[in-house]
Structure formats: structure tokens, C-alpha cells
Amino acid sequence: MSKVAFIGLGVMGYPMAGHLARAGHDVTVYNRSAAKAQKWLDEYGGDSAPTPAAAAAGAEFAMCCVGNDDDLRSVLLGDDGALASLAAGGVLVDHTTASANVARELAAVAAERDLGFLDAPVSGGQAGAENGALTIMLGGDPASYERVAPVIAAYARMQRLMGPVGSGQLTKMVNQICIGGLVQALSEGLHFAKMAGLDAQAAMEVISQGAAGSWQMDNRHRTMLDDHYEHGFAVDWMRKDFAIVLEEARGNGASLPVTALVDQFYADLQAMGGGRWDTSSLLRRLESLRGDA
User: From CA 281, how far away is CA 5, in angstroms rounded?
Assistant: First the structure.
């Protein structure tokens, strides 16, 4: 078992850190809200620390799951950052969905301190985190990955090293590109079925067994038909991710017309007050155009 620091106890980090504790690792957590850290301690035991540096002191591995590039810098850099105290030879695993550029920036700082760094964004949502069934795509050096892979297994159903630093974040961008198009297509399919007078539920049950089937169809069509979106991955978060994707595409020359269009549809949902709705709320946007929502 390993001594592990976990930084960031949001909807994903909280259960991920819990799986580490239940697997028998010695876990010290840090969260900006001390009350959230105390709640975690009450549920899982372990220790908490007042700063990221204090949490990482003496740890073999430090995991991080925060909001964006700036949040990452604030918890990893500086005298109070985790990179200041992680023991030489330790590995920092960043589960934040962030830019590939910040991954490379932080990896360079880590290397100067004889530390390993892996960018390791996750897919699977809150349910995947709670069930220990996340998919994790990683970028970094193979030696660091081989050391930490058994620890990550506490909350991963699937993990894979995709290449050098930044490759994990780039793969997560591919994931978000695919999801955006799928959810918009599913929304249009459900909308069309209802307008055509079909039993939309029955239609989904049939076509989900064929070539149109997907995770989004299996797990979201019922809540979409019920007009229920107070769950899942928020529109605000997807727009943050799409901003990263579109910035990267401008740099590498990729053409992403559907992603850019769906991003604007999510902007419409934000204007409707739906920033915290699940990304499947694209159906509500379509129905609002007819006055049905």
C-alpha cells in the first residue's frame, strides 16, 4: 500500500479518494473547503492537511482533480503547492480536464524537482467515480505510469498510457468532441420521433440494439424524455472543455465544425439558465424553439 495525497474533493475527487482509502492506501486529502475535507474524513478516515504542500509532504504519489488550468497552478505551484513538498522520485497524477499546454508546463516543473508527472483526465462522470469504474487516459513517461497504475486501479475500469505528457489531455479532447456530436444527434433523434408521432421510448429500445447504439443513448434517453436534467455532467463544464478543444484545434489545424456548432447550442442553454443542467439538455433547447419546453 502507498502513501497518497489527494487534492480536490469535488464530485469526482471525493469518491476517487474514497476508493483509495478503501483499498488500504494511506490517504491525506486537501480541499479548499475544510468542511468538505472533514466530511470525507468522517466517511473514510485518513488525514487532511491545510495546504496542498502539507498534504503531499512525504507522499509517494499525489493525485489532483480540480477545475481548470488556473486552479491547477494554484494547488501545484508555489510554496504551498504540492510540487514543493512531494518527495523526490514521487509522481504527480493530474486528473483535471485541462489543456495539454498546462500539462507540459507542470511536467517541466516536476522534472526540475526529480518528480514524475502524468496528465490523466477521466471519463465516466460522477457515477463512474462513485462506482470505481472510470476510464483514464494518461500522458507521461512509462516508468512513472508503471509505478502508479496499481494505485489508479482503485477507481479505474480502464486506464491506458497514450503517449508523452499532454497525450492524456488530447485524448480527453477527442472524447468530448465525440460526446458533443452524439448528444446533439440523440436529441435530434428523440425530437424527430416525438414530432413524427412515434413512441420515442420504444424507438430507442429498438435502435439501441443496432448501429445507432451508444452509452449516451443507453444512459440518457429516458431522462431526456422525462425532461430531467438535474444530474450528470453540467453544460458549464462542457463549455469549459470545448473552449480547450477549440483552442487546441486552432493550433493544430483540425476542422471541428460540429463541435463549434454544439458549443453554441450549449451557450443557448446557458442563456436559458441551464448552465448546471446535464449536457443531454440539448433536447430541451430544441423543444424550446417550438415552445414545448
Answer: 36
